[in-house]
Amino acid sequence: MVALDGIPVRDCTYCCGRTKSICNAIEEKDLPRLLAASSRLHLPSGRIFIEEGESAQAFYVIAEGRAKLFNLFSDGRRQISGFVATGDFLGLAASERYAFSAEALGDIKLCRFAYETMDHLTEQFPHLQKRLRAEASRELVKMQARLVLLGRKSARERLASFFIEQACCSEDGLEEALNQRKNLSIPPVISLFLPMSRSDIADYLGLTIETVSRTLKIFKAEGLIKIQDVKTVTLLNTVRLKFISEGNN
Amino acid sequence: MVALDGIPVRDCTYCCGRTKSICNAIEEKDLPRLLAASSRLHLPSGRIFIEEGESAQAFYVIAEGRAKLFNLFSDGRRQISGFVATGDFLGLAASERYAFSAEALGDIKLCRFAYETMDHLTEQFPHLQKRLRAEASRELVKMQARLVLLGRKSARERLASFFIEQACCSEDGLEEALNQRKNLSIPPVISLFLPMSRSDIADYLGLTIETVSRTLKIFKAEGLIKIQDVKTVTLLNTVRLKFISEGNN
DNA sequence: CGTAGGCTTGAGTTCCCTCAACCGGAGTGG
DNA sequence: CCACTCCGGTTGAGGGAACTCAAGCCTACG
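^ Those are the sequences you sent over. The predicted structure of the assembly is below.
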């Protein structure tokens, strides 16, 4: 696919961008063995590194950067099933074949674990298997929320949900604060960098680019957001957006 | 929740309705130990046995019968995230709390595994942990398809997808046959028993009952299905339905 | 300065939703 | 045994949210 790029194997950040990644499932002293079992990739923006239907051979951890996961129809319709960022795990949604395609959003660094070497590792480190299961469960919980969004939410609610989701990804603790209505601890405004295009957002939310554009305009007019530039949005009223996202408009 | 109903522990069918269930992850001789760690429930139709947001304490295996999984909005909107049948696994989509509610569709029998006893079991039977992960992966693949359905398919395509999905559940090998276009091996007509109401189908597909009803009428007029009675539908042209479900129409 | 690509805006359309009436089988009670 | 009600499902009329198509705008880039 792509040659290794020679990053030293000891560099843990290469598969452990965050706590949610898998390295915390094993002891510090065993890390080198885990890393030795993986290969590191450096991909340019736009590169498709997993193709739907392709025989599934490996997991990936995003070491740095972002990617989008999607499914394509023969007539061009597209559904983006998720955006992933540093530390996220990829390739659990596969039995024989990958259930989605994945494309780099900007340059990214990946850590690749072939299934078979992973199988050896999970035998040596039982915690790892458990960790993978936990990761899959997390993923399933997120999917559940996405079903509700696509099946039952209006365009307005979808966009609000999207902003809240993105904000929660970039601000640790925000999700909890919003859920508990502890408004005091919520930063009044949150600035988001959105590397994806309008078309990506639309395909993620099951809408068209025009509807996304128009809804953003409305949010702007209502003072809910400020559009710094086309890829940078500032949320001016997170609590209200959260409220809208839940259908309480 | 409900008293055990005294079924002998040796009765494997109680947690192993099918190959996809978890018993095949351990040796025959160890089964009694697995079963001893579980409790058996017998619930009446309509009983809600998992509630969204409730602290997650256990897995369930459907030993017999069917159930629906769903999420509720405060304003009454509902999204059904899945129907499960004998042998299916429940409760993986949970981190701290369940991400969905579950309700019996007709009388059902359940096998309940508390997380903590399950943790002991997975230590004794490493295969079990792997099996759980595989189950979660299967689930994720299905979810992926549901995202596409809810995000990008028309009402017509959704109903066709629904029929194909239900047919594949009740006819072993059908899915493969349809994917490979080996039409010879596909039974010409398939009769389906659908225990769920129109309202359930609508909430599963992100539609309204009226749209479901109207679309069925159209399918009938086109000779694609025959409606035996309100809960029994015969698919008259599975290949065509599969075609429609994929957007080629 | 010109072009291309992504984004926005406008006008018109459509698919599905909403609301309302109707239908028919199951259960109840006189 | 029939009348009544209830409830899930069907059918029809009308409306609206989001889509489609088309034009215009802005920024990036050669």
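Chain A has a mean pLDDT of 87. The interface with chain B takes residues 71, 73-75, 77-79, 81, 92-95, 99-100, 122-123, 126, 129-130, 132-134, 136-141, 143-148, 150-152, 203, 205-206, 246-248 of chain A (CB under 8 Å).

Shout if you want it in another format.
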